[in-house]
Specification:
The protein is built from 31 helices and 33 strands. By secondary structure, the protein is of the alpha/beta class. The chain starts with a strand and ends with a helix.
Length: 929
């Protein structure tokens, strides 16, 4: 049987996957006929996958798939009519209001070919640079920093440096969850090479728990930390003066500022929020090793000082002469599979194709290549600016592709209203269910992963072919094709692409032209410019720059190793950070900082992963994690509901004054004493598609980094207030989503259907929900908690099962849902009571389905076996943990849950040890007596 090599659809690691049919050929293939494993030959993952990657095939079975173009009303239309409508509307809008009145908003999920046609269409022919991407929300601060320092958006290091480094510094990166495959490589490097892992993060994350040194800094203090490090390196005479003189500019002025911080390490440590001992330990680690690799992610990027912070990191590596050297330098961890590919073709509003800017020579090259009179003359609107212009009525037509800005952008309520009020909204999607898709005037069916073909570029500059293996159903089309149809109907030439290969060839040819005219640019696809269709289809994963076809298949390369950079002078630039106003970091008495981030098993706004039962099991509802000390402060209860609202403190007002936003979200409170006392955390994934109270961006404002224009999602001030529910619980089977009094409603996919977590502020509404004269109702008390149970039947079969209480209901969801459709008799009632009393154990490992209860049971068994065999004085927790993981498999596949497995096992071990020691003590007391 043949195999198809492709790439994963999730993060910027860009793992290779191998898909095989479980039948003789690929004819009439369905997902049930396929198997997927990691590609053992791909340089990003060498066969390893995370839990999400392992379930890629499960993501294809969407509950509702868009297969034909349609209007918002649901009325269908054909592609010819749809493309004509879009072309006519865009043309009329530009004629009446100018090119700045239209916009395109793209996604890191698009293929490079899609991105290229979009940018050609907008910047070359619509004459607008109002084309941005959700990569702005994830990567643009790192992009801006690299452009300032290196002269070009180029990541100098590669994944192999993880195995070569002596010290690995992860900054604002919970890599164990967000990039599990890379984190396994990091852990392997720790074991094999004795590399030291430093994690810099205000939160005690799954990654931080496995670090050799965790600096739990004050939020936003990473800028001072690294600026101070530069000063310390200079103070200790650890900088490479020869390299600095030959290959950099601006060192003297920047280091003099940095040394003002390092002059008093005790004061700096206090500012950063760590002990001077730990600060000095970190500084000495960096100063004392030749191979130090610093990698950052959203904790840095999604900050209003993200660009300056990234430059502060790069400054340190420039001072050490560590850019482009083995096992060292700066690395940016990317959140999307093609964020880099999109930037290569000019996907951001602030750039043109092939890493060009908006200078006259660059614009002229592009106009000549595209054979148009001119291209967009200046930078367009970045994501937040674009939707501000939409809200202000300045943008009157927008085309959104493969992203869900109503959920992913800050100030979600404003975004939704702006789209609802916009005269013309086009959305290209694979499902009509997303919050954004529901606001489209025209909804276009796009090909998704498994159907579309093209290329993506991962975080280490490796281009991988993403190959389709399922025939698109209905009229789903590639995004590049859809835009080409509209462009041709607007009278634009140069859009007669035969296939994705012809798009890529044009892009590669442009790269060759740009490299020829601007030889200092690093980005180069010259070696791919003359690929035949067959060569393109067979293209191996290849890392750029690619000057010659002989380099196809190259991997593990670094750039700037020779000390020549892409700046006008050929030298890297030290960049001084702007002063940070301390008042901007202060909190008023009634606020705390809300950190939004990713859950281990979910992806973006859950449109791809929310319907996969095994990935939903660990996060059934929206929750907010906060320190126990904050409960009394905000009058909250553990397991209770919390209203979360943005709080802004104007500089002109008293420091105790706040402006409370009208928008809010709601989550269940989870006490987590690993959290800093003044910080709460909530995942970014929730939306109206899954939760009545929508997502975290309802409570976040649209502040941005002034340089990169990237939103500052991290650690914004919010106000928390309790929401008292009279009744809450779960309903299985039939569910009335519009029932009177519902104030909490979260849909969760199960292995055998869907359940809904529900809540009511009024007791009568809760009891009346789906109640009929024929409903069976009774109360069951379990461990002192009254549970109000209701069964609705149809012809003697259970149609709906409701379990409510005054506090959180914990029942086995899949087991309870299995009763739906069964005859309601004495046996069912007996089994139902048994199941309710059995409770529910949280999922710990998504790969294996292992729960907390399973780990507790096995650890207790291991403990008893050791005590019986070797006595209490010779027991070993590590031996018990290893045996438990070997037997159950938890934490041994993708590894993202290893810290949770260890934490759960440790608590069970301590409980068993405590109980045994008590018994042992009692026995001793009796003997003495």
């Amino acid at each position: 049987m043949s195999k198809i090599q492709s790439s994963c659809a999730y993060c910027g690691v860009g793992c290779g996957v191998s898909v095989s049919p479980n039948k003789a050929d690929w004819t009439d293939i369905n997902t049930a006929d396929l198997s997927l494993v990691g590609d053992i030959n791909h340089p990003a993952n060498y066969g390893h996958l995370c839990a999400k990657g392992e379930r890629l095939l499960d993501s294809l079975d969407q509950p509702n798939v868009l297969r034909y173009p349609k209007y918002r009303s649901g009325k269908p239309l054909d592609w010819n009519s749809a493309s004509t409508l879009i072309a006519d509307t865009f043309a009329q809008t530009i004629a009446e209001h100018g090119p700045g009145s239209v916009a395109l908003y793209l996604s890191g999920q698009l293929l490079t070919e899609d991105y290229y046609v979009a940018n050609k269409f907008a910047k070359g022919f619509l004459k607008t640079a109002n084309i941005d991407t959700n990569s702005r929300l994830c990567m643009s601060s790192a992009v801006s920093a690299m452009q300032r320092a290196f002269g070009e958006d180029v990541v100098p290091a590669c994944f192999d440096d993880l195995e070569q480094a002596e010290v690995i510094v992860l900054v604002g990166a919970n890599t164990a969850w967000t990039h599990p495959v890379l984190f396994q490589r990091i852990l392997a490097a720790k074991k094999t090479n004795n590399a030291r892992l430093v994690v810099i993060d205000p939160l005690s994350t799954a990654t931080a728990k496995q670090a050799d040194l965790h600096l739990a800094i004050t939020p936003g203090a990473d800028l001072a930390l690294f600026h101070g490090l530069l000063g310390y390196l200079a103070d200790q005479n650890c900088v490479d003066h020869t390299y600095i003189a030959a290959h950099t500019e601006g060192f003297d002025s920047v280091v003099s500022e940095a040394q003002q911080l390092s002059a008093n390490l005790a004061e700096l440590a206090n500012q950063i929020g760590v002990s001077v001992t730990r600060l000095t330990e970190f500084y000495q680690l960096v100063a004392g090793h030749k191979k130090v690799l610093t990698a950052s992610c959203q904790g840095v990027n999604q900050s209003t000082i993200g660009t300056d912070t990234t430059n502060a990191m790069i400054n340190c590596h420039l001072a050490l002469g560590q850019i482009g050297q083995i096992g060292s330098g700066f690395f940016s961890l990317t959140g999307q599979p093609n964020a880099m590919g999109g930037r290569e073709v000019g996907g951001l509003a602030s750039q043109l194709a092939c890493h060009m800017g908006f200078s006259a020579p660059e614009r002229q090259l592009l106009a000549d290549f595209w054979q148009t009179d001119s291209v967009a003359e200046q930078k367009g609107l970045a994501a937040v600016e674009m939707f501000d212009a939409l809200a202000d009525g300045k943008i009157k037509a927008i085309w959104i592709m493969g992203t869900n800005p109503v959920v992913s952008l800050p100030n979600s309520e404003k975004i939704a209203k702006a789209l609802a009020d916009c005269p013309f909204v086009v959305v290209s999607e694979i499902s009509p269910d997303s919050d954004t898709a529901k606001l489209a005037d025209v909804l276009l069916p796009a090909q998704g992963w498994s159907e579309k073909c093209g290329t993506v570029t991962n975080s280490e500059r490796t281009i991988t072919r993403q190959r389709g293996f399922i025939t698109p159903k209905g009229q789903a089309k590639a995004d590049w094709w859809a835009m080409s149809q509209v462009a041709k109907k607007m009278g634009f030439h140069g859009f007669d692409f035969e296939d994705n290969a012809s798009v890529f060839n044009e892009f590669s040819a442009m790269s060759a032209r740009v490299k020829q005219q601007f030889p200092n640019k690093v980005f180069d696809l010259t070696g791919l410019a003359d690929l035949s269709k067959g060569q393109y289809d067979a293209l191996l994963p290849t890392q750029w720059p690619i000057a010659s076809a002989t380099q196809i298949g190259q991997r593990g390369g670094r750039v700037f190793s020779d000390g020549v950079f892409a700046t006008a002078s050929g030298k890297a630039q030290f960049v001084a950070p702007a002063p940070v106003n301390p008042s901007e970091q202060s909190l008023t008495n009634n606020t705390l900082l809300l950190n939004s981030g990713r859950s281990r098993d979910q992806w973006h706004t859950m449109t791809r992963t929310g319907h996969i039962a095994s990935l939903r099991a660990s996060i059934p509802e929206p929750v907010i994690h906060l320190h126990s000390s904050q409960l009394q402060k905000f009058s909250l209860t553990e397991g209770g509901f919390v209203r979360i609202q943005s709080a802004m403190t104007p500089h002109s007002m008293d420091t105790n004054a706040t402006i409370l936003s009208s928008a809010f979200t709601v989550a269940r409170a989870v006490v987590d004493d690993d959290m800093p006392a003044n910080v709460a955390s909530m995942s970014m994934h929730w939306s109206a598609q899954f939760s009545m109270t929508k997502g975290v961006n309802q409570a976040l404002d649209a502040r941005v980094d002034p340089i990169s224009k990237q939103p500052g999602f991290k650690c914004q001030p919010v106000i928390l207030s309790p929401i008292q529910l009279a009744l809450q619980g779960v309903v299985f089977g039939q569910h009335d989503s519009s029932a009177h009094g519902l104030c909490w409603q979260v849909a969760q996919t199960l292995e055998n259907g869907v359940c809904h977590h529900i809540g009511f502020t009024d007791t009568n509404d809760g009891f009346a929900y789906q109640a009929t004269a024929y409903s069976l109702k009774w109360t069951l008390t379990v461990d002192g908690q009254p549970l109000y149970i209701q069964c609705n039947m149809d012809k003697g079969l259970l149609k709906a099962l409701k379990v409510l209480s005054h506090t959180q209901v914990n029942v086995g969801l899949n087991q309870m849902n299995a009763f739906i459709g069964k005859p309601v008799d004495k046996q069912l009632m007996k089994l139902l009571h048994q199941q309710i009393k059995a409770g529910n154990s949280p999922l710990i490992c998504a790969c294996t389905g292992v729960t907390e209860a399973s780990i507790n049971d096995e650890i207790n068994q291991q403990f008893n076996d050791q005590v019986m065999g070797d006595g209490l004085t010779n027991i070993s927790f590590q031996q018990a943990l290893d045996s438990t993981q070997s037997l159950l498999g938890c934490g041994r596949q993708c590894g993202s849950c290893h810290s949770e497995v260890k934490q759960c096992a440790k608590q069970s071990w301590l409980d068993a040890l405590s109980y045994t020691e008590i018994e042992h003590q009692h026995a001793v007391e009796e003997d003495v007596a």
